[in-house]
Amino acid sequence: MVKEKFSKGNSSIHKLDPRVKIITFSLFSLVVATTYKFSILFTSLLYPLSLIFISRVNLKEVLKSLVVVNAFILFLWIFLPFTKAGVPWFSLGPLTIFKDGMKYATLITLKSNIIILSMITLIATSSVFSIVHALHHLHVPDKLVHLTFFTFRYIHVIYKEYKKLTNAMKLRGFNPGTNIHTYRSYAYLIGNLILRSFDKAEMVYKAMVCRGFRGTFPLLYHFKIGKRDRVFLAFSVSYICFLATFSLR
Amino acid sequence: MNIIELKDITFGYSSEKNVFKGLNLVLKEGEKIGITGPNGSGKTTLLYLIIGILKPFNGEVKIFDNIRENEKDFKEVREKIGFVFQNPDDQLFSPTVAEDIAFGPLNLGRPREEIYKTIKDTLLALGLEGFDNKITYRLSEGEKKLVAIGTILSMRPQVFLLDEPTADLDEKNRERIINIINGLSTSYIITSHDMELLKKTTNTVYRLEDSRLSPISI
After folding, report:
1. Within an 8 Å CB–CB cutoff, is residue B78 touching chain A?
2. Which end of chain B has the lower number of beta carbons within 10 A, N or C?
3. Chain B residues whose beta carbon lies within 8 Å of the beta carbon of residue A218
4. Is A26 part of a structural domain of the chain?
5. How close is the nearest chain A Cα to the Cα of B188, in Å?
6. Mean predicted confidence (pLDDT) in B146-172
7. A241 and A125 co-located in one domain
8. A121 to chain B nearest CA, in Å?
9. Alpha carbon B45 to chain centroid, angstroms
10. Residue A217 DSSP symbol
């Protein structure tokens, strides 16, 4: 269900220490998200684009992911340009398009796309589990890390349960329609899923306690920062600093 | 020496109906016990009482010659008694096989160098060499079961509790599990409907029914 489309690969980006990637990604998105200058945004676009080039991720998949994100942004374009604020730009029949609205819609679109692109190239090029481990090493609170970890681990299991239940329903001739029977059956399905997830969680916890779990996850493998990571970090941080300085001016 | 001693245990999931009333069980050192019985007779519940996941209403749970009552008492018990759950999906939660096998030993605070060796030895014993970095949830059912046993083997417990170790397995994997169990030098308790498994791996078999354990011959 959750496919790690970009995590497999052999490029130098894939081989980077996930901690380095998380740090640079956070810094980079912070600068991009807070700037109001188009010149900075266009310059920052160079960063994810060059990362795409280096990591050789599948361009088609990247575009597919962008389509999903931009579908949400489309809603902004329906409302923002017509929101009455600032100077009217031009009229479109009975509607007036405002300059500020246009500006904000463009800004948001650019920012989201830049951040998503860098997320795909930096975060998605590591497996979810190594990212989770990296978060742990970066001293993100345990509870948050565990939440991320278990959500990912058990979404497969719950999805499998869901498939099993819907298949069982289909095999008994269930044909969804707009009627009370359908609504009730779906409610039962969801109720059942919640119960099963709860039971599952209980069992997993029991099994963990039986193996001496005391609330923290011991890590088997440690990460090591190598020369590649240092070079990447130095380059990225100086680029981000450059963007930040010009953004603040 | 008695390793596990359950005396006059009363337990139930609802107040009207008790699963156990005055149940007794003794596991001596070196003893290999099999427990069979109808569905819902309380085989798994019995194992849960030993490991302290469930606590009896009345009666005494004595393990390694100490009476065990609260969580703290059972913490020590769980380090020495390994429990293999019936459903390996409940047991395996780490991303990779190696990390799952290491989870127990890491919790016990064993040194890292030793753990790397334990992982290798465990996989060798299971016949799963080279499985270190495989993703646990993508394993086949039989492999999952083997790894689940491995996650307990690596803790090197003094007693094993195995809940339905051969349920849902094909002939070949069943054979592998039987061989692994027969290779254990410790005492253990197995619950199962699989009479052939019990015949091959245990020296005493009890039938659990109506809150009573009666020895049977198979």
Report:
1. yes
2. N
3. 102-103, 106-107
4. yes
5. 16
6. 93
7. yes
8. 22
9. 12
10. P
Residue A109 and residue A33 share a domain = yes
Question: What are the structural domains of chain B?
Answer: 2-216 (3.40.50.300)
Which residues constitute the domain of residue A198? Answer: 139-210
Enumerate the residues of chain A whose CB falls inside 8 A of the CB of residue B96.
Answer: 129
Residues A193-196: contacts with CB within 8 Å, 24+ apart? A193/A158, A193/A161, A193/A162, A193/A165, A196/A158, A196/A161
Comparing CB atoms, the residue among A129, A204, A210 nearest residue B95 is: A129
Say yes or no: A130 and A192 in one domain: no
Query: Do A115 and A46 belong to one domain?
Result: yes
| Residue of B59, B63, B2, B54 whose CA lies nearest to B27 | B2
pLDDT of A169-216, one tens digit each? Answer: 888 878 888 888 889 889 999 998 998 888 888 888 888 888 888 777
User: Would you call A95 exposed, middle or buried from its count of C-beta atoms within 10 A (0-12, 13-18, 19+)?
Assistant: exposed
Residue A87 burial by Cβ neighbours in a 10 Å radius (0-12, 13-18, 19+):
exposed
CB B35 within 8 A of CB B46: yes
A109-134 pLDDT, tens digit each: 999 999 999 999 999 998 887 888 88
- Residues of chain B in contact with residue A220, where contact means CB-CB under 8 angstroms, are 98-99, 102, 106, 115
Percent composition of chain B: helix, strand, coil (DSSP 3-state, to 5): 40, 25, 35
* Distance, CA of B33 to CA of B28 (rounded, Å): 9
CA quadruple B92, B97, B101, B106: dihedral sign: negative
Query: For B183, phi and psi rounded to 5 degrees?
Result: -80, -5
Query: For residues A125 and A7, is the Cβ–Cβ distance under 8 A?
Result: yes
ipTM of the complex: 0.77
Taking the CA of residue A129 and the nearest CA in chain B, the distance in Å comes to 7
